[in-house]
Write a structure and sequence with these properties.
This protein has 95 residues and is an all-beta fold. The chain has a single domain, classed as Archaeosine Trna-guanine Transglycosylase, Chain: A, domain 4 (Roll), CATH 2.30.130. Strands 1-2-5-8 form a 4-stranded antiparallel sheet, with no helix packed on it.
């Protein structure tokens, strides 16, 4: 059973397909490569976790699109959610 899914090779996050526990090792397919990620936090079903290091102010990429910006550095295997991401979707453009 797959534990996580990467939707686009450009993505820097995977989506948990089950509740993941700290120290679980998850394999995800990224393009033609298989990437192993050690989960650093509990990740609830449907939530995101980093498959690459993401620096402060760097984009969060899901579906091959920017869905937010990191508000602090996020390491491989860390939970990616409202505590470390500022959403960019649905915000009015600056004038």
């Amino acid at each position: 059973m797959r534990k996580a899914l990467v939707l686009n090779p450009k993505d820097n996050v995977a989506i948990a397909l089950t509740n993941l526990k700290r120290d679980d090792v998850v394999e995800v397919q990224v393009g033609g490569d298989v990437v192993k990620v050690k989960v650093l936090n509990e990740i609830p079903f449907g939530h995101k976790f980093a498959i690459r290091d993401i620096g402060n102010d760097e984009p969060i990429i899901k579906y091959g699109e920017v869905v937010g910006v990191a508000t602090k550095s996020i390491g491989v295997g860390e939970h990616v959610h409202v505590h470390n991401v500022r959403g960019t979707r649905g915000r009015p453009k600056d004038k």
